[in-house]
């Protein structure tokens, strides 16, 4: 008799929440077990896996150690941006580009009040927002260099 096992696999390029879910399951841990091992509330793990909150550096390191994976799988550019803190980074980059909030909002297609809330730290940009911001900053810096 031949048995075939279907091994699931996660690409290295997969986002952190997929890496977490895959390696947590691969190591045979429930979310609440992982939460106990890294000393956080179970809801924190659930929020990470369901894209409700980005990883913070301290927890990404702890999770990577427990799951025996590279921290970069959990702490990507988006999480670095959010952890920086993001509101300070937004202001810094926009200021370097010599743009007002109104100018950058118009240039990037982001609502000015949303940009303002991000810069004040009252709203957290999503991963999708980060991709739009990064692209807008890239384009703006290319224009400023010309």
What attributes does this structure have?
146 residues, mainly alpha, 434 Repressor (Amino-terminal Domain), 9 helices, 63% helix, elongated
Please write out the topology:
Elements (H helix, E strand, L loop, with lengths): L15 H11 L4 H8 L3 H8 L7 H11 L9 H7 L2 H11 L4 H8 L3 H9 L6 H19 L1
Helix pairs in contact: 2-3
What report would you give on this structure?
With 146 residues, this protein is an all-alpha fold. It folds into 2 domains: 16-76, 434 Repressor (Amino-terminal Domain) (Orthogonal Bundle), CATH 1.10.260.40; 84-145, Orthogonal Bundle (434 Repressor (Amino-terminal Domain)), CATH 1.10.260.40. It is 63% helix and 0% strand. It has helices spanning 16-26, 31-38, 42-49, 57-67, 77-83, 86-96, 101-108, 112-120, 127-145. The longest helix has 19 residues, at 127-145.
